[in-house]
Specification:
Elements: E1 5-18, E2 24-37, E3 41-45, H1 52-59, E4 67-74, E5 77-80, H2 86-95, E6 97-100, H3 112-122, H4 127-140, H5 157-169, E7 175-179, H6 187-202, E8 206-210, H7 214-220, E9 223-226
Parallel strand pairs: 3-8, 3-9, 6-7, 7-8
Antiparallel strand pairs: 1-2, 1-4, 4-5
Helix pairs in contact: 3-4, 3-5
The protein binds adenosine-5'-triphosphate and magnesium ion.
Length: 239
């Protein structure tokens, strides 16, 4: 079987300018080339602070790349997220690209069940069907039924993370970006999430993830992707 390429990153660099620090310039990523095919789970492997989350955020176009291209297969063609207009980035996120961040980014005041069902409804799935699927996922992720009608604002860290995972995994995105999705989960939930991610890969998703945990990494990675820090971290004593 020939694999379909889904992600094609070439010459990606990202640096930050800290305007409040007198324009201090921080190069983080440089010359990153990364190709990911359908059915792969590529794990970004690098020390803390090397730029793993920065790379994922660039892939989701949360951060604008300083240079290079980030091509994602979308709708039968390629979209370069490094240069795409906002409307096109939105379309890619809507139907192609899913992102599980380590924490819920915004905690809206809407009930958990609606929050999880929402991406399916946005795709035109009937309300009932979307809610049934959301319930099944919440049950599988062991969110107690009494919490389904409560907004997740008051949930524990692990509960919020599972809601976050359910909200992304409910759509069969062809490309998935995962930043430490199991970091605050107990073993049973961690194993459930591992199964979900492996099923997504089995149906052909191209996955890029960050998993610090050795066990999770071994259960999911089809390949490691090392990045080397552009600059060694040096500590300058404050006098
Ligand atoms: N928005 C930003 N502005 C300035 N610097 C940033 C920004 N985002 C990230 N950085 C810097 O980029 C570097 C890499 O951060 P990043 O979060 O990508 O690391 P990481 O590899 O994910 O680390 P960890 O394993 O600890 O999560 C850090 O030094 C961080 O301070
Ligand atoms: Mg990180």
């Amino acid at each position: 079987m020939t694999m379909t390429r889904r992600i094609d990153v070439t010459g990606l660099s990202k640096d930050f300018t800290l305007h409040l620090q007198g324009g201090l310039h921080l190069p983080i990523l440089s010359g990153v080339d990364m190709q990911v095919d359908a059915g792969e789970c590529v794990v970004i492997h690098a020390p803390s602070g090397a730029g793993k989350s920065t790379l994922l955020r660039c892939l989701y176009a949360n951060y604008r790349a300083s240079s290079g291209s980030i091509r994602i297969r979308h709708d039968g063609g390629w979209v370069d997220l490094a240069s795409a207009p906002a409307r096109q980035i939105h379309a890619v996120r809507h139907s192609t690209l899913g992102f599980v961040t380590q924490f819920l980014r915004v905690i809206p005041r809407i009930p958990t069940l609606d929050l999880v069902a929402e991406p399916l409804i946005a795709k035109g799935v009937a309300l009932n069907e979307a809610q049934e699927q959301a319930k099944a996922l919440l049950a599988r992720l062991r969110i107690p039924m009494r919490l389904w009608h409560v907004p997740p604002a008051t949930f524990s860290g692990g509960e919020q993370q599972r809601v976050n995972i359910a909200r992304t995994m409910i759509s069969d995105y062809p490309v998935l970006l995962l930043d430490e999705p199991t970091a605050s989960l107990d073993e049973a939930n961690r194993d459930t999430v591992i199964d979900m991610i492996n099923s997504a890969r089995d149906r052909g998703a191209a996955i890029v993830g960050i998993f610090h945990d050795e066990y999770v990494c071994r259960a999911l990675a089809t390949r490691l992707f090392p990045i080397t820090p552009v600059q060694p971290v040096t500590l300058v004593p404050v006098i």
